[in-house]
């Protein structure tokens, strides 16, 4: 039988047209949306001012963005299982939040470049809802991340649709118009590592001098910060991070609290950062940051190194009680310190450890 060559050509033409139409359909239905998640952090506050023997808060409010970094590839990742403070907030995340947190931890070396695109292995359609909580937990647990500027980061979602199937992919990269997502004075990975080295050297020096009991070590870390840091009333670029506290020796309350934690992390003493409101003797309320520490008796106690290092106005500092907020229980601490687990105002509400009722 003679073949119908014309019929075969028509079928091929129909198939080709179908392929083209499908390709166009896929192209139209595939879209990349760079969604800048509105990431924020807690408001940083003040420290007490001593004037005419009275405590008085000086208002210093500043948004602390996604600043801070993981010290180095092994540092800051204490694997001792009994240190509850190391991943205290991570454990409160949902599965998607934990995945985001772990991806950033595992890519910390790449993050130092400030330009690396980081992909997240997440398939959920609502992963964006967990971003803020994951970042809040990440930087509460790891205050040694200091070089990233959240305002320069784009958390992007790409959705790919074919017929009824929708796939989601997520990644971070510098925002459009930004060369990197590093804080302004750090330009590249070399400068980031140089800053990290300075912090590491300072921490090693402090830890090497921490001897004796858990109490002795906690007291030494507290006194080291109180005796060497000057409160940064000018709010420099590092006033809210550990570089300002440990290298430049000037910071606000968040720098004190974060530095206290990184030191105790290295000493394997459970410690968490707490955000909330500080209330002075006149009833003035300020956003504030301090720490909770778990002692050998299994109970948690509060430490506020910032308020133990008050600004002195018009007089000498002799007679000032620099241990007024050291290892305090709830009975003598909560009246002036109100914790707030919603540290960014946009994430989940975290739970803090329950304080001992009495002082240590």
Task: Describe the protein.
By secondary structure, this protein is an alpha+beta fold. The chain has one domain (43-339). The protein has helices spanning 5-29, 95-106, 108-111, 128-141, 189-208, 214-228, 242-246, 253-266, and strands at residues 30-33, 43-44, 48-51, 54-57, 62-63, 118-120, 153-162, 165-174, 230-231, 250-251, 271-279, 285-294, 300-303, 311-313, 326-328, 337-339. A 5-stranded antiparallel beta sheet has the order 15-13-12-11-16. A 4-stranded antiparallel beta sheet has the order 1-7-8-6. Strand 7 and strand 8 form a beta hairpin.
Structure keywords:
360 residues; alpha+beta; 5-stranded antiparallel beta sheet; 8 helices; 21% strand; disordered N terminus
Class based on secondary structure composition and strand pairing: alpha+beta
Helix content: 25-40%
Stretches with pLDDT under 50, minimum 5 residues: 1-7, 24-36, 41-80
Tell the overall outline: globular
What amount of the residues lies in strands? 15-25%
Instruction: Give the radius of gyration.
Output: 26 Å
What is the element string, with H for helices and E for strands?
HEEEEEHHEHEEHHEHEHEEEEEE
Largest sheet, strands/sense/barrel? 5 strands, antiparallel
How confident is the prediction overall: mean pLDDT? 81
Tally of discrete structural domains? 1
Distance from first to last alpha carbon:
102 Å
Please tally the helical runs, counting DSSP H or I stretches of 4 or more residues.
8
What's the quick description here?
With 360 residues, the chain is of the alpha+beta class. 30% of the residues lie in helices and 21% in strands.
